[in-house]
Amino acid sequence: MLIRKPAMGWNTWNTFARDINDELIREIADFMVKEGYLDAGYDTLVIDDNWQENERVDGHLAPDKSRFPNGIKPLADYVHSKGLKFGIYSAAGVRTCCNKPGSFGYEYVDAQDFADWGVDYLKYDLCHFPGSGDRKSAYLTMSMALKSTGRDIEYSAAICGEANPGEWMRSIGAHNYRMSGDITDSFGSISFIAQRRMNEHDFTAPGCYADMDMLVVGMDGKGYAAKGGCSIDEYFTHFALWCFYSSPLMIGCDIRKISPESKKILFNKDLIAINQDEECNAPYRERQSRYAQIVKDKFTVAKQLSGNKIAFGFFNFADSKVIQTSYMTDFGIPSYANKTLLFRNIQTGETFKVKDSHSVELDPHACAVYIAEFVD
Fold first, then answer.
1. Is the domain covering 8-275 a CATH 3.20.20.70 domain?
2. I want to staple 305 with a disulfide (CB 3.0 to 4.6 A). Which of 4, 169, 309, 313 is the partner?
3. Residue 50 and residue 98 in contact, taking contact as beta carbons nearer than 8 Å
4. 22, 110, 120, 125: the active-site residue
5. What distance, in Å, lies between the first and last C-alpha atoms of the chain?
6. Given this model, what pLDDT does residue 286 score?
7. Is pLDDT above 50 for 348?
8. Is the pLDDT of residue 100 over 60?
9. DSSP SS3 for 34
10. Active site annotation includes 134
């Protein structure tokens, strides 16, 4: 199965963590359709950890009867009836992060159960993995187990950056892989993950995507992953970077209570188009001059898009205002080429021509994103 674009959807963990149940999932499914999330591209609803009973039943994973009294299949059927895909969670270890039964040694049993229940997406974590085990072999085994079912199930390998996953995840059939630890609702966490992503070799391409973890846009300091919250500028910067780097876009906030400003970010058509662009090119970060190292937290990236367009993102990670100037020659458009770009600011709609360079004043932790195309 070829996954041509990064996944988009909603996941329970960042807000609700262990506190999940059948009623919540059905309500979120209704809301995703009613409030336009499905139309915007968010088509997958994922139940994270703690849906399981404390122990296996007759060798199988079983849903917690107090939380999911009707079982998983009727819930998956309900999610499907809304036009959404249904996702579920397990772990490659002996136990999950919530100390529920893991899939270690039961990969083929669990994969078949997931297929029989109508699962479309598996998030596969790495908690309580035995010290004698081999991570690559464990993730390969689940990949083959999923294939053996005959059902198309998108495989999300939540390996948290261990064992250099970018070097081998595509070869074992994973559709996305976590390249870092868990995100929290703070700009420090966002910037840490983004800078790590920028400094890694880029193995993202259609079919397999580096996952920078779930979105915290709209959490506003509430929920399990809350660490004080972020400003709207910080949420916009977060979403823009995840889009430039083709990370899966899994919403983690309570969308029933999201602010209009945060919802507007999640629905930004230009940023979503950057994330979902069919060419899936990695962004190019300009080489910093020795002077730029004085303010090393400001930078510009450019991403070639289909249709001969280019996305430019000017970012400021500093705690103060900066003026970020970038020269087009650093992006392969030298002055002697005598080429002009038409820039469109995706937030303001302003258009203007750029030939040799562009400068923009950026507030702390803010960014400016432009869609550009050659005009002569």
1. yes
2. 309
3. yes
4. 125
5. 41
6. 87
7. yes
8. yes
9. helix
10. no
User: Can you point out the beta strands (E) in 139-237?
Assistant: 154-157, 176-178, 209-211
Predicted confidence (pLDDT) per residue in 8-34, tens digit: 999 999 999 999 999 999 999 999 999
What three-state secondary structure class fits 13?
A: helix
Query: Phi and psi (nearest 5°) for 144?
Result: -70, -35
Tens-digit pLDDT profile for residues 181-218: 999 999 999 999 999 999 888 889 999 999 999 999 99
Tokens of 4: 């041509």
Whole-model pTM: value is 0.96
284-374 shares the fold of 8-275: no
The two three-digit tokens of residue 269, written as one number: 């058509």
Domain-wise residue ranges, the chain: 8-275, 284-374
What is the spatial distance between Cα 205 and Cα 280, in angstroms, rounded to a whole number?
A: 6
Q: What is the pLDDT of residue 293?
A: 47
Please list the alpha-helical segments (H only) found in the chain. 13-16, 22-34, 37-40, 72-81, 107-117, 135-148, 187-198, 232-244, 260-266, 269-275
- Average pLDDT of the chain to the nearest whole number: 95
Please check whether residue 372 is in contact with residue 354, taking contact to mean a CB–CB distance below 8 angstroms.
yes
CATH architecture assignment, domain 284-374? Sandwich (2.60)
Considering just the CA atoms, what is the radius of gyration of the chain in Å? 21
247: left (phi over 0), alpha (psi -120 to 50) or beta: beta
Structure tokens at 257: 């209570």
Whether 49 is catalytic is no
Residue partners of 193: CB distance under 8 A and separation at least 6: 180, 183, 212, 213
Is 197:331 a contact under the CB 8 Å cutoff?
A: no
